[in-house]
Write a structure and sequence with these properties.
By secondary structure, the protein is an alpha+beta fold. Helix content is 44%, strand content 19%. The longest helix has 17 residues.
Length: 138
């Protein structure tokens, strides 16, 4: 299973436990209007096919505030617009806005961090080749 599939599976496993509202959507079931509203409000130009999860924090379901999870990291709304948080830079949180389960959210970002930073077979092969080439140079 590739990193993309691992991320989708992880988000499907954890995301519903991260937010107490029923306004949580995962890959394959993310309404286009909510995706477009999140992009317009805080996530910018994100390819719909790379959106793996969406948390809608709005009262009436517009998704103009919340979090949008992609293949590279997640976007969250802030008072000044949007903020992008790459999985490779994610840390754990001590607190989150009302309605969030901090423990579940930390489990999610930790799992996504591990997937993002885990070397691929190609990365390992390149590392071995670099080592062999260094040895041959000596």
């Amino acid at each position: 299973m590739g990193k993309r599939e691992q991320m989708i599976s992880t988000i499907k496993k954890y995301l519903r436990n991260c937010y107490t509202s029923s306004s949580v959507y995962v890959y394959g079931n993310i309404p286009k209007d909510k995706y477009l509203n999140a992009c317009g409000a805080y996530a910018g130009n994100v390819d719909y096919n790379n959106v793996f999860g969406l948390i809608d924090e709005t009262l009436f379901g517009s998704a103009k505030t919340g979090m949008l999870f992609t293949d590279k990291g997640y976007y969250s709304d802030t008072s000044s617009g949007g903020e992008f948080n790459p999985y490779k830079d994610c840390t754990t949180f001590k607190s989150l806005p009302s309605g969030y389960n901090v423990v579940a959210f930390n489990e999610l970002v930790t799992a996504l961090y591990e997937i993002e930073t885990d070397p691929s077979g190609l990365d390992i092969a390149i590392g071995i080749l670099d080592t062999v080439l260094d040895l041959l140079d000596d």
